[in-house]
Design brief:
The structure holds 2 protein chains of 2 kinds.
Chain A: E1 8-17, E2 20-30, E3 35-39, H1 46-53, E4 61-66, E5 69-71, H2 76-81, E6 84-87, H3 99-104, H4 116-130, H5 145-158, E7 163-167, H6 175-190, E8 194-199, H7 202-208, E9 211-216, E10 219-225, H8 232-240, E11 260-268, E12 280-285, E13 288-293, H9 300-307, E14 315-320, E15 323-324, H10 330-335, E16 338-341, H11 345-349, H12 356-361, E17 371-372, E18 375-376, H13 378-391, H14 408-420, E19 426-430, H15 438-453, E20 457-461, H16 465-471, E21 474-479, E22 482-488, H17 494-501
Parallel strand pairs in A: 3-8, 3-9, 6-7, 7-8, 13-20, 13-21, 16-19, 19-20
Antiparallel strand pairs in A: 1-2, 1-4, 4-5, 9-10, 11-12, 11-14, 14-15, 17-18, 21-22
Chain B: H1 2-8, H2 11-36, H3 44-62, H4 65-89, H5 94-117, E1 132-133, H6 143-147, E2 149-150, H7 152-170, H8 172-182, H9 184-189, H10 194-220, H11 232-242, H12 247-269, H13 277-295
Antiparallel strand pairs in B: 1-2
Helix pairs in contact in B: 2-7, 2-10, 2-11, 2-12, 3-4, 3-5, 3-10, 3-11, 4-5, 4-10, 7-8, 8-10, 11-12, 11-13, 12-13
Classes of the chains: A alpha/beta, B mainly alpha.
């Protein structure tokens, strides 16, 4: 028997941006029925490679074969015509249009009538075949994130995709939605389609793929079968190129004797935000990390804003170190010892267009240390920031470099350094390791553990459940502006948390 | 009071209203196509001015009105290409490109008008469009004379509203256009050529603005003057916001504006209210601002308006 013809073969793909080799001689094969994991850290070149395949980027060299025939993919419509579909990490949908309208974009014909009936029929077919159904007449802005992703998959299938690329598809899904996605992908593989699954989550690689290609710094490191021998640890070490030591979480028991550092009582919010907080009660003790889980948009941002003093609650009380806040402002909260690492590092965190030194002292600019009757003490500022750069190993050429030139991991280190320099009583961090590579994430987690050892209180908001399980002492789950429940990490399981994230309480279920 | 009303609201008033509305409808729909594709065409004022001049001049020398209209359309389309070069291909700031285009086009129209007609003692004139009563329809009482005893260009303007709505909402090209204006990445990943669609939109946009200019210098008036557009292009920009980027609502906005404009003309002419005429001239603009403030607070512009689309960027 001759070996089967690969559905897709990429040979010697090269692509560089400036001096960075994003793809350096990449070879990749996908067979019918494959679910291929493409594993690598940020900047490994996974997305670049897939964008080459989807016609978004033009490679500097290399060949692409589909069904054994060499093809040229000049743009997305070439890719679609060849049966390549892609679900991007940030969905390419129009929120204001209906599902049906989103599915009809780019269909043939210009001034004929829209092919509404035909597309509805295709939707029915796909719904039955892969268990992927959606109401065609709903506006996309009213869909959940999981449903929007389903729309993207249906769109690819309507274009006749036989090769489906998914870029970090589970980043914003609940565990339950992830299960649904995996079931659909397995159904597609069973029909001899090929799926390429980009991720840096190791447990997903183990759960869904049959082969893994591991990339690092623009190169393919290895390609292996997903079997019993591919342990998480081995995958992680191949991905990072160095041994991994997860941070240790020394056992600590938080007793009632531990001081309550932060206490929210019956907090409600109103206003323009999409989600309003409803009756939030949360005590965070010194020496513990409380993780906040939930699908994005269920009030986590509002909770962070309330704790940081940016959003004034419409009712309820906030205590910091048992002191009731009578007035609320970011300055007051900060002065009482609340540090904040915001989700949006370059929007609310640092200022990309300013020198790093300015970015790092801005929240404390009125401290005597940095200014004398309204004039900045440049020398003191530079000294302070230079010391932090050294202490935290921030890769930056001195304090005068423009903040925006730092990489994501170094931006996060700078933020961390800025907040920790004032030894906060309470540290609030949102998505602290999003987009960071494994070693940078480890560094961040280690700093959290150090704070915890020193009896500080930490509130960590994350959509990455693995992270929360690793570092939290208790996990609170938010759903539609409420805290559904708070579980000690020993009692929490992915399925319990997943149900709570979907708004289902166990005693009710 | 009823005497005043009776004196104002005669059939002639509504006939005039439709004529005032016509260039606004052309301009508004032209702007609408550009904005729904994500490009703010602030060249509108200058494009209308230049097209009014080229259309008029062509007719002046050839005596052919429709040749003049075609020239005006072509002029608008060339200006649309210029907008495309600046905002689509080069991805420059749409505000600056649009204002630049307006300054360039109005400058060109003054320059060439002087060059062609020198400083003649009498204003050059053409035989302008005459009204074309439609058979049967124009005999209907009240409605007939208002709608069906008009210039040919008026009929075209009235027809273009439903045609535009149909194209935008019921054809694949219209859906692609709206998608390009909302999320060009979504259009691109569905195989739609974003730049091509934006160029097409700007060509249509320029053609309709050209028609607006032609109507003013060749139907409403029979001469070209430097004040022939006098801010009507800018009004169209406001009418789009007022009409929440819908062809029907924007056209309704144009008619409302025309109503107020026609009304103030009548009030100026009648000796019933004794106020300086500048107050009346101001009325439509003041009411536009008030109307915008009320209606458009919840209006949502196309999400990708003002955003250039560049590929291969990271």
């Amino acid at each position: 028997m001759s070996p089967p013809v690969p559905l897709l073969e990429m040979r010697g793909i090269r692509k560089h941006f400036g001096t960075v080799k994003a793809n350096d001689n990449i070879d990749l094969r996908l067979y019918p029925g494959d679910i291929l994991g493409l594993l690598g850290e940020n900047g490994a070149g996974k997305t670049t490679l897939m964008n080459v395949l989807f016609g978004v980027y033009h490679p500097d060299g290399g060949k692409i074969f589909i069904d054994g025939k060499q093809v040229h993919i000049g743009n997305s419509s070439d890719a679609l015509a060849l049966g390549v579909g892609m679900v991007h990490q940030h969905f390419h949908v129009v929120p204001r249009h209906t599902v049906l309208e989103n599915l009809m974009v780019g269909q043939k014909g210009n001034f004929g009538r829209l092919p509404k009936a035909a597309i509805r029929k295709r939707m029915d077919d796909i719904g039955q075949r892969y268990d992927l159904s959606l109401d065609p007449d709903v506006r996309v802005e009213d869909l959940t994130i999981g449903q929007q992703q389903r729309l993207e998959i249906i769109k690819a299938l309507i274009f006749g995709a036989r090769i489906l690329i998914l870029d970090e598809p589970t980043a914003t899904l609940t565990p339950h939605e992830t299960d649904g996605l995996f079931a659909a992908l397995r159904a597609m593989a069973a029909k001899q389609m090929g799926v390429i699954f980009i991720t840096h989550k190791l447990n997903e690689i183990r759960a869904i793929t049959n082969r893994v290609v591991i990339m690092r710094l623009g190169k393919v490191i290895t390609s292996l079968k997903n079997d019993a021998r591919t342990s998480r640890k081995r995958l992680a070490e191949l991905m990072c190129g160095q041994p991994i030591h997860p941070p240790e979480r020394p056992v600590k028991t938080v007793s009632d004797a531990s001081p309550v550092r932060l206490s929210l009582k019956n907090i409600c919010t109103t206003g323009r935000a999409r989600t309003h907080l409803k009756d939030i009660n949360l005590d965070v003790y010194g020496g513990e990390i409380v993780g906040i889980a939930g699908v994005s948009g269920n009030g986590q941002k509002e909770l962070a804003d309330v704790i940081a003093g940016v959003l004034k609650p419409s009712s309820g009380q906030i205590y910091i170190n048992k002191q009731l806040l009578k007035q609320i402002s970011p300055g007051i909260v900060q002065a009482l010892g609340v540090g904040r690492i915001p989700e949006d590092r370059t929007g609310t965190g640092l200022i990309t267009t300013l020198p790093l030194s300015d970015s790092m002292v801005l929240p404390r600019i009125s401290e005597k240390k940095f200014n004398r009757s309204g004039f900045l003490k440049q020398g003191a500022i530079r000294q302070f920031v230079t010391r932090l750069i050294e202490q935290y190993g921030i890769k930056a050429d001195g304090p005068d470099i423009r903040t925006g030139t730092l990489s994501g991991g170094n931006l996060q280190k700078a933020l961390l350094a800025r907040e920790l320099a004032w030894d906060p009583q309470v540290l609030l961090a949102a998505q602290p390791t999003r987009g960071l590579d494994v070693s940078a994430a480890q560094f961040v987690h280690q700093k959290f553990m150090d704070l915890r050892q020193r009896d500080r209180a930490l509130v960590i908001i994350s959509e990455n459940l693995e992270e929360l399980f690793e570092i939290s002492d208790r996990i609170a789950v938010m759903y539609e502006g409420r805290i559904m429940d708070i579980l000690p990490v020993e009692e929490a399981t992915v399925s319990r948390i997943g149900l709570l994230m979907a708004g289902v309480r166990e005693d009710a279920a | 009071m009823s005497e005043i009303l009776a004196q104002i609201f005669q059939i002639g008033f509504f006939t005039a209203l439709i004529r005032i509305a016509t260039p606004l409808i052309f301009g508004t729909l032209g702007e609408l196509f550009a904005e729904r594709s994500g490009v703010l065409n602030l060249g509108i004022e200058g494009i209308m001015m230049l097209a009014a001049m080229t259309g008029f001049s062509t007719t002046y020398f050839t005596g052919n009105l429709w040749l003049g209209v075609l020239t005006a359309i072509a002029t608008g389309m060339i200006a649309g290409l210029l907008m495309g070069l600046l905002t689509v291909s080069l991805g420059l700031s749409q505000h600056v490109s649009g204002i630049g285009t307006t300054l360039l086009c109005s400058g060109l129209s003054f320059f060439f008008y002087r060059l062609i007609f020198k400083q003649s003692s009498s204003i050059p004139k053409i035989v302008a469009f005459k009204t074309v009563p439609l058979p049967l329809l124009s005999k209907i009482p009240v409605i007939g004379p208002i709608f069906f005893n008009q210039f040919a260009l008026v009929y075209i303007a009235i027809a273009i509203v439903p045609i535009s709505a149909y194209i935008l909402y019921h054809t694949p090209w219209g859906l692609n256009l709206r998608t390009v204006g909302e999320n060009p990445l979504a259009a691109d990943s569905a195989g739609v050529n974003v730049h091509r669609v934006r160029y097409q939109a700007l060509l249509i946009s320029g053609a309709l603005m050209g028609l607006a200019g032609a109507f003013l210098s060749m139907a409403q008036f029979n001469a070209y003057t430097f004040g022939v557009i006098s801010g009507r292009g800018w009004v169209c920009i406001a009418l789009i916001v007022f009409g929440q980027w819908s062809p029907w609502k924007s056209a309704a906005g144009a008619i409302l504006f025309a109503f107020i404009d026609a009304l103030q003309l009548r009030l100026q002419a009648s000796s019933l209210i004794n106020l300086p005429y500048q107050i009346f001239l101001m009325m439509p603009f003041v009411l536009t601002i008030i109307g915008m403030a009320i209606v458009s607070r919840n209006a949502r512009a196309p999400a990708a308006l003002l955003q250039p689309f560049r590929k291969e960027e990271r």
